[in-house]
Amino acid sequence: MPTILSVTFTENNMSETVRWANERIEKSFSTFIVTANPEIVMKARKFPDFYKVISSADLITPDGIGIVYASKILGQSLKERVAGYDLLHSLLEYREIQGIPTKVFLLGSKTEVVEAASMKLESLYRKVSIMGTHHGYFEKDSEEEISILEQISREKPDLLLVGLGSPKQEEFIHRFKNECGATVMIGVGGCFDILSGRIQRAPALFRKCGLEWFYRLLCEPSRIKRQIILPVFAFLVIKERMLRGKEAPEYKLTE
């Protein structure tokens, strides 16, 4: 399995990941999926408790072109980026084509945003039923959190989408994976903002060139504080490659 700075990723491409996730839903296997970008990898490197959280996931996908480039540098076999937003739509589209109903619960963001996101999903996919939504502004170990868990447990969604931002979303799923009653659980970051229309996704050209991060930075300059970590990530990957010596084969980032 490809490992980037001690975080182990799936080798599956998007279609393979979708089929795997669909099978988990159909067999009612409780499943925790992490879509990890360089920021999450660096956070796991810095905080051992968070590393334990994401290491408990059933699958970690490469969300971010930086992860794919890092795998090439290290001579590993990541096939393509499997971003959370794309995985969500690909999975729902797959089930739609198969004619399989999907029960979905959305947790995170502001009330008006998560409700708008839920309406968007139902308008896009006839087989999707939104079993509930809840904003993400609740305290850990609060009565509100207990109430949220009870609501999710009652509805038993096939797909629980948690958009609390990292690390809160991964920690939430890790803590309650075995008691919340959901089947496949994914931390989806800012997906609700895009679904609701509050934020526009990068144009296809930016995504194709691996520059979605740059587009988001242009739209949200405040993200610079988070993205400062990217050069450090690149340095550590190159350092690891050098320490491995000739072990990794030659590569081209343009492949």
Automatic annotation (TrEMBL):
- Looking at the keywords, is Transferase present? yes
Q: Which residues form the signal peptide?
A: none
Q: Which GO terms describe its molecular function?
A: hexosyltransferase activity
Q: Which Pfam families match?
A: Glyco_tran_WecG
Q: What keywords is this UniProt entry annotated with? A: Glycosyltransferase, Transferase
Q: Which InterPro entries does UniProt cross-reference here?
A: WecG_TagA_CpsF
What this protein is called in its record is WecB/TagA/CpsF family glycosyltransferase
Species of provenance? Lederbergia citri
